Structures are given as structure tokens and as C-alpha cells.
């Protein structure tokens, strides 16, 4: 009797395992098929629009040309300005929280504020950026206004990734450095940060990916102008001018202008950029992880 009950329970357990495994496979296949279908659809719709002139010229009614070169330049401006400011602030905040601050109410409040910022909808950041940076500080619709707004958006991402990366560094590294007479900052600069570099780079590149795909916040802050730079003397002044990124132009092409061919062309460019960012993230993280182990 006992053997029969044991056999029945074992059979039920095996059946449950098979059903669960089948469910996992179905979910995985659904995810892969969904991503593949989106990629194929965008490629089919946008591949006919992609060309060298499309990527190297700007839209002109007089010349009869359609291009996104100005939007690409504006996107690069936004990325560079945002990350140059957000990266040192985010890494510095993470170093303070993980290495200097004592566990307590202050650290809890800062971490709670960081997590709250990461969950706020981007359109709220856009509204805040427009009212504070654009109107209160008088920056108006400009690339600088959009960059300052995105700094607030990506700062939690950089901070949290850096903090988690620092937590993965073994305490033996810290104790060993102290035992050798190294100071706190010397230990952080030469041991902890290099060891945590894969996680830091991952956070930075993920922040870049979010910047590339952002539209709601920039629509309220950066504007939609798409002019190119005519000379080197205009490189710095352009920061204070309106500039629409690729996502802004995609939105305008699909809604206001009704030009879905251009919209899908921009979508394909963005898709390629995001894929390259993800591939670069994995490759750099793997490279630094191998370097750290060796």
C-alpha cells in the first residue's frame, strides 16, 4: 500500500514537472517570437527608406530631400551632455552610499528617493524640466534643457547599478587594502572601482539606451528643430537652441506629418542603435569581468 502511494505521488510529481517545463518553454517561445515579429515588421517597413542621403542630409522642401542627419546630431548632443554630467554624479553618489555613509535613516531616505525617481513617468520629468529649466531658468526649448531633464531621469539608473556593482566586490579586497596601509580613497580608486567596472559600464550604457529611446520628456524641453551645424563656431551655441532627437522626429512623422515611411525608417535606425548598445554592453561587461579575474 505504501509502495503504491509512493509510486502515485512520484508519478504526479513528474507530471507536474513536465507541465511546468512545457509552460516555461511556451513562455520563452512566445517572447522570442514576439521580439522577432516586431523586428521583422520594422525591418520590412523601414528598410526601403534607409539610404546614405537619408542618414547624411536633412529634410528640405526646396531640395525635395528627406533626411535625419540633424536629428542624429541632436541625439548625440543629448547623450554627450547628459552622460558627461550624470555619470560622475551617479558614480560619486553610489560610492558615498556604499563606502562612506553609515547605515541609517539618511541612507534609507536617499535610496528611497532614488528608487522613487526611477519609477516616475517620463512625461512628469518633461513637465518639470519645461517649467523649471525652460521657464524659471530661462533656457527655453533647447538641447541643454532636455539634457538637464534627462540627467534627473538617468541618475537613479547609474547610481543604483554602481551601488549594486560595488556591493559585489568582496570585503576581502577592502580588508586586504587596509592591511597594506592603503587609504580609503586610494582603495576605492585603485581596487573597488576597477573591480566594479562591469556593473558601472552596464548602468552607463543602459542609461544611454534610455536617452536614445526617450521622447515624452524631450518633447516638452528640447523642442523639434532639426538643423545641422554649418561651422565649428556653432558647436557650443547649438546647446542653447531647440533640437529634436530621432524619437521626436519619429513621433512627428507618424502623427503630425503622416509620413509613415520616414517614421519606420527612423524606427529601424533606433532599433539598430538599441541592438548595438545591448551587444556593446554585454561585450564590455564580459571584457572587464575577464580582466578583473586575470
Model description:
This protein is an all-alpha fold and 294 residues long. Helices cover 76% and strands 2% of the residues. It contains twelve helices and two strands, in the order ααββαααααααααα. It has helices at 2-46, 52-56, 69-100, 105-119, 122-136, 143-167, 171-179, 184-195, 197-213, 216-221, 246-254, 260-293; strands spanning 58-60, 65-68. A two-stranded antiparallel sheet has the order 1-2. Strand 1 (58-60) and strand 2 form a beta hairpin. Helix 1 packs across helix 12. The longest helix has 45 residues, at 2-46. The radius of gyration is 25 Å and the shape is globular.
Give short descriptive properties of this protein:
two-stranded antiparallel sheet; 294 residues; 2 strands; mainly alpha; 12 helices
Amino acid at each position: 500500500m505504501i509502495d503504491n502511494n509512493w509510486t502515485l505521488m512520484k508519478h504526479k510529481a513528474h507530471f507536474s514537472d513536465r507541465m511546468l517545463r512545457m509552460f516555461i518553454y511556451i513562455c520563452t517561445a512566445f517572447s522570442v517570437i514576439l521580439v522577432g515579429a516586431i523586428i521583422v515588421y520594422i525591418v520590412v517597413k523601414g528598410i526601403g527608406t534607409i539610404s546614405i542621403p537619408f542618414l547624411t542630409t536633412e529634410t528640405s522642401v526646396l531640395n525635395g530631400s528627406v533626411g535625419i542627419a540633424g536629428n542624429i546630431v541632436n541625439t548625440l548632443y543629448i547623450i554627450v551632455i547628459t552622460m558627461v554630467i550624470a555619470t560622475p554624479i551617479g558614480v560619486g553618489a553610489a560610492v558615498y552610499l556604499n563606502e562612506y555613509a553609515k547605515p541609517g535613516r539618511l541612507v534609507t531616505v536617499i535610496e528611497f528617493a532614488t528608487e522613487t525617481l526611477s519609477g516616475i513617468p517620463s512625461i512628469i520629468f518633461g513637465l518639470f524640466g519645461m517649467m523649471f529649466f525652460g521657464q524659471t531658468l530661462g533656457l527655453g526649448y533647447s538641447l541643454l534643457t532636455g539634457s538637464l531633464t534627462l540627467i534627473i531621469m538617468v541618475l537613479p539608473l547609474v547610481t543604483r547599478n554602481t551601488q549594486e556593482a560595488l556591493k559585489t566586490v568582496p570585503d576581502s579586497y577592502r580588508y586586504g587594502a587596509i592591511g597594506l596601509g592603503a587609504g580609503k580613497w586610494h582603495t576605492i580608486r585603485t581596487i573597488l572601482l576597477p573591480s566594479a567596472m562591469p556593473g558601472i559600464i552596464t548602468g552607463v550604457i543602459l542609461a544611454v539606451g534610455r536617452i536614445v529611446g526617450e521622447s515624452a520628456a524631450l518633447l516638452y524641453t528640447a523642442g523639434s528643430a532639426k538643423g545641422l551645424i554649418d561651422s565649428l563656431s556653432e558647436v557650443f551655441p547649438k546647446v542653447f537652441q531647440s533640437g529634436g532627437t530621432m524619437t521626436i522626429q519619429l513621433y512627428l512623422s507618424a502623427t503630425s506629418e503622416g509620413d509613415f515611411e520616414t517614421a519606420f525608417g527612423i524606427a529601424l535606425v533606433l532599433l539598430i542603435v538599441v541592438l548595438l548598445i545591448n551587444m556593446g554592453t554585454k561585450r564590455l561587461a564580459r571584457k572587464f569581468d575577464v580582466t578583473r579575474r586575470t
